């Protein structure tokens, strides 16, 4: 750097100085190259020049000799030709000489004047310096001519130049080889070691890490290197030691500073701890005087620092506790170095006593000598209040009526109250520590409990019904309120369960639900619930594309039984019917009660409509057997209507409506049967409804009229009685027969009033005929089941007879066989009562019902009426003839009269007469006639079979 500066200051004027400056800045390698180059080049050049000069001289001499020799030769050779002046002889000699390229010209002159004898000149050979040499030609002693040769030294010069180039090349090669060898030597012997020395020296100056240089050479450089390496190693070691000492010193200083800082921080921290501690802390000396107190202690005692510091601590301990506190300090703290927490009361000058927990720790100096006591006091007011609350909570826990159970996070039961042991039957010792799962109802899927667990774990609280298992194994449903207690970090701690046994409430709820769904009497699904079931089944059928059937079941004449035998009997009967209906069904089918005597059956397993008819038949069959209720043997037949899903309706209401219509149809067709719904039934159902409405007003409007059909004695042909048959003079439809409205009136409960009207009118008319002076006859009146089973039937009839003035013996009552067998015992009693009044009694439609012959004997009837259905086909039909014959014989054997109805032909008449029938009634004698016509007929006298 300094050199460079000085370089720039060198005046550029002096070339010598510039060269000197340049030389001083050359590197060692450059200097060596320069020295070797100059050292080798200068002698080489001088040697070359000397050699060249020597060579030129030698070649010049050699050239001169050759010139002399050529000249001599030619002069000798031309002596004769010149003498002879023979050009032919001289010319070849000259030409031979001219073959030498260095000869430019040859001229042979004779001594005679004129032209040279021979002259040959080749000027183009002239390239260098030319030399003219001449020699006389002697012949003997005579000079006869002269030979002159011109020589060119171009060849000589060329040879000299070539020689020079060879020398230069030789010297160049020598120089390069020498330089290379020298540089190689220089590099390996000097420059590389020097560089290493230089690096060593640099490492030495920079106190760098030891390079680990090893010098093996034994020359001066190696020696120097080793010395340097040793010096560097020593220096490094010394620096290392210095550094270590330095670092140790620094570390020492840092540690000391840190210790001081830590001490300061610790002091500050402990001071802060002391100041900010919520517990009252004070330092008392060995005399018990307060040295220092934290704000909490001042607050605890309610005094300022000045009032406490320097005062004996004992002054602030309640008198009662002073000696105890003193004892703890003297015998615990001073002896053991500390004491456990104990309770005392502080005396606060301005606020009275305060319960505190106290603690003491002995303070020692560095030599372990006791120098004071740390006194730590904690307000116990809150803790005591909490303890009281805990005590209260424990009392509540123990005395509450609900079972309480606490479950730890590991699902083990940690505590239970008394109610728990009462309700679940476990003693606390038995259940505490057990997993809560022991209380699970084993029949309930674990999943249910897992869901409950998840609910309260996620929500923090949950309440609902949980099934539990008592120790006894019994299970019950409890209403559980579950609360999760979390710690301050939000982690789930204990789980508290309040368990209330709701089995009773649940049972009550189930009963209510049952009541809401099931008919209380028959325990069948009620109207609403059956609808639910049916709608469900319909929806299911809709989904699966299958069939269903709805059967509407109505009991024939149930109202009669209910009204006559009382509701208790009716209820019992319905229960029995329900039970038999249930029995008639297959699994999966259902029966419900719509109300009264109406039942519905839902058939689920249905392949076709035929299946429904099988079930309907089975129902008919099951209900056909008499029911025994309270000693009454009752026969109840049902009428069934069947509607199919989806053909007859796609919803429940439509299906019920259509099944109902079909049921009416069944009733119209003689009851105790079933009918499938057909589209026109609804029209019929509407018509029935219309009829019912009109019927209700028909009595008021006096639209009924009685026709009378004569009954004649077969023996005499005399009219012995008439059957009163009702007709309805409908304002629009004209005269309507009883079959079109009596079943409806019976079904809708209208028959009572109508029947009473018929009775009254028939009695009135009969009395009127008698009053007219016509021969007295019996008037037979049909009694519906409902009328027949009315409790006050006898009373009513007595009243009517009295009212109309008809003697009882002129009134006959016809009751169908199916009615009287409904309740045999009642029938017997009723018939006896009627009989006692002096009335005549006939069993209508005899042979169609199921009357047992034993009953027949007990029924005090006067007459059996062979049903028209048998009479119709006699005498042609053997069966009907046999039945008719049997009935006639039976009547005779029992001492009863027998009358055949529906007699239309003389053959029937003859047959009946032959069999011994007493009376006949039928178109053969007369159709039913208005009263006036009948009177005329009566007046005409006896009827005889024409022809
Ligand atoms: N084919 C045919 N029929 C004959 C012949 N002789 C009479 N009849 C009909 O047979 C029915 C006889 O009455 P029933 O068997 O008591 O059957 C009666 C009876 O059960 C009921 N009925 C009629 N009036 C009353 C009534 O005032 N009260 C009650 N409860 N039922 C009545 O209506 C049923 C039908 O009465 P009606 O239509 O008047 O039909 C009458 C009568 O017109 C005959 O030779 N051939």
UniProtKB/TrEMBL annotation:
Residues 546-679 form the GGDEF domain. SUPFAM superfamilies: EAL domain-like (SSF141868), Nucleotide cyclase (SSF55073), PYP-like sensor domain (PAS domain) (SSF55785). The chain crosses the membrane at residues 31-52, 167-186. Residues 688-942 form the EAL domain. Residues 266-311, 389-459 form the PAS domain. Residues 340-392, 462-514 form the PAC domain. SMART domains: EAL, GGDEF, PAC, PAS. Residues 188-240 form the HAMP domain. Pfam families: EAL, GGDEF, HAMP, PAS_4, PAS_9. Gene3D superfamilies: 3.30.70.270, 6.10.340.10, EAL domain (3.20.20.450), PAS domain (3.30.450.20). Keywords: Membrane, Transmembrane, Transmembrane helix. NCBIfam families: GGDEF, sensory_box. This is EAL domain-containing protein.
């Amino acid at each position: 750097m300094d050199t460079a500066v000085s370089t720039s200051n060198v005046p550029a004027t002096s070339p010598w100085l510039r060269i000197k400056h340049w030389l001083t800045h050359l590197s060692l390698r450059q200097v060596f190259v320069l020295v070797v180059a100059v050292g080798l080049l200068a002698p080489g050049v001088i040697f070359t020049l000397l050699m060249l000069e020597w060579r030129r001289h030698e070649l010049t001499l050699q050239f001169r000799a050759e010139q002399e020799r050529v000249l001599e030769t030619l002069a000798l050779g031309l002596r004769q030709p010149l003498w002879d002046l023979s050009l032919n002889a001289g010319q070849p000699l000259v030409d031979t000489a001219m073959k030498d390229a260095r000869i430019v010209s040859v001229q042979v002159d004779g001594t005679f004047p004129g032209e040279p004898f021979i002259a040959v000149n080749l000027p183009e050979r002239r390239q260098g310096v030319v030399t003219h040499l001449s020699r006389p030609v002697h012949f003997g002693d005579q000079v006869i001519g002269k030979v002159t040769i011109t020589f060119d030294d171009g060849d000589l010069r060329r040879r000299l130049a070539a020689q020079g180039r060879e020398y230069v090349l030789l010297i160049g090669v020598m120089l390069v080889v020498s330089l290379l060898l020298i540089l190689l030597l220089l590099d390996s012997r000097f420059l590389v070691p020097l560089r290493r020395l230089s690096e060593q020296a640099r490492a030495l100056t920079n106190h760098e890490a030891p390079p680990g240089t090893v010098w093996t050479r034994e020359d001066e450089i190696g020696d120097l290197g080793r010395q340097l390496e040793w010096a560097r190693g020593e220096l490094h070691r010394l620096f290392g030691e210095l550094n270590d000492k330095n670092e140790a010193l620094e570390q020492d200083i840092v540690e000391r500073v840190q210790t001081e800082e830590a001490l300061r921080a610790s002091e500050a921290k402990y001071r802060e701890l002391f100041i900010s501690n919520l517990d009252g802390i004070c330092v008392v000396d060995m005399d018990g005087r307060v040295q220092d107190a934290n704000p909490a202690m001042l607050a605890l005692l309610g005094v300022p620092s000045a009032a406490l510091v320097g005062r004996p601590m004992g002054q602030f301990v309640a008198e009662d506790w002073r000696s105890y506190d003193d004892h703890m300090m003297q015998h615990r703290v001073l002896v053991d170095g500390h004491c456990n927490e104990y309770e005392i009361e502080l005396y606060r000058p301005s606020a009275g006593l305060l319960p505190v927990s106290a603690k003491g720790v002995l303070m020692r100096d560095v030599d372990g000598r006791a120098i004071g006591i740390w006194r730590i006091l904690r307000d116990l007011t809150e803790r005591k209040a909490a303890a009281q609350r805990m005590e209260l909570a424990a009392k509540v826990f123990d005395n509450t009526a609900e079972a309480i159970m606490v479950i730890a996070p590991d699902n083990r039961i940690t505590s239970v109250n008394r109610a728990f042991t009462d309700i679940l039957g476990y003693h606390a010792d038995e259940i505490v520590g057990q997993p809560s799962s022991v209380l699970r109802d084993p029949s309930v899927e674990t999943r249910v409990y897992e869901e409950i667990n998840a609910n309260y774990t996620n929500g923090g609280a949950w309440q609902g019904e949980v099934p539990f298992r008592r120790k006894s194994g019994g299970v019950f449903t409890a209403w559980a309120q579950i609360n999760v207690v979390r710690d301050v970090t939000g982690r789930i701690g204990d789980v508290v369960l309040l368990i209330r046994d709701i089995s009773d409430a649940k049972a009550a709820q189930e009963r209510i639900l049952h009541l809401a769904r099931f008919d209380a009497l028959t325990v069948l699904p009620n109207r609403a619930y059956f609808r639910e079931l049916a709608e469900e089944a319909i929806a299911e059928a809709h989904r699966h594309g299958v069939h269903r059937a709805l059967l509407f079941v109505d009991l024939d004449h149930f109202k009669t039984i209910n009204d006559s035998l009382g509701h208790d009997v009716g209820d019992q009967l319905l229960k029995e019917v329900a039970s038999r209906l249930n029995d008639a069904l297959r699994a999966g089918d259902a029966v419900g009660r719509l109300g009264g005597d109406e039942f519905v059956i839902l058939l689920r397993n249905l392949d076709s409509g035929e299946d429904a008819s099988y079930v309907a038949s089975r129902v008919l069959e099951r209900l056909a057997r008499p029911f025994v209720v309270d000693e009454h043997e009752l026969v109840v037949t049902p009428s069934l209507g069947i509607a199919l899903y989806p053909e007859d309706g796609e919803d429940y209401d439509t299906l019920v409506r259509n099944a109902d219509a079909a049921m009416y149809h069944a009733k119209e067709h003689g009851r105790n049967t079933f009918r499938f719904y057909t589209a026109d039934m609804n029209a019929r159902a509407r018509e029935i409804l219309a009829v019912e409405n009109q019927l209700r007003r028909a009595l008021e409007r006096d639209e009924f009229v009685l026709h009378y059909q004569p009954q004649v004695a077969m023996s005499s042909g005399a009219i012995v009685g008439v059957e009163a048959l009702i007709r309805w003079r409908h304002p629009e439809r004209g005269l309507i027969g009883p079959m079109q409205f009596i079943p409806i009136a019976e079904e809708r409960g209208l028959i009572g009033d109508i029947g009473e009207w018929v009775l009254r009118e028939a009695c009135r008319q009969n009395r009127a005929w008698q009053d007219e002076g016509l021969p007295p006859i019996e008037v037979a009146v049909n009694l519906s089941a409902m009328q027949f089973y009315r409790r006050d039937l006898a009373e009513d009839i007595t009243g009517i007879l009295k009212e109309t003035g008809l003697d009882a013996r002129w009134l006959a009552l016809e009751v169908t066989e199916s009615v009287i067998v409904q309740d045999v015992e009642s029938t017997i009693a009723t018939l006896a009562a009627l009989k006692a009044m002096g009335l005549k009694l006939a069993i209508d439609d005899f042979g169609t019902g199921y009357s047992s012959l034993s009953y027949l004997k007990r029924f005090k009837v006067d007459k059996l009426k062979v049903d028209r259905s048998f009479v119709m086909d006699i005498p042609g039909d053997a069966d009907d003839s046999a039945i008719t014959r049997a009935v006639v014989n039976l009547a005779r054997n029992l001492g009863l009269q027998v009358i055949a109805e529906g007699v239309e032909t003389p053959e029937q008449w003859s047959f009946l007469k032959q069999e011994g029938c007493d009376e006949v009634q039928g178109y053969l004698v007369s159709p039913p006639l208005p009263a006036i016509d009948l009177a005329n007929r009566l007046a005409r006298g006896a009827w005889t079979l024409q022809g």
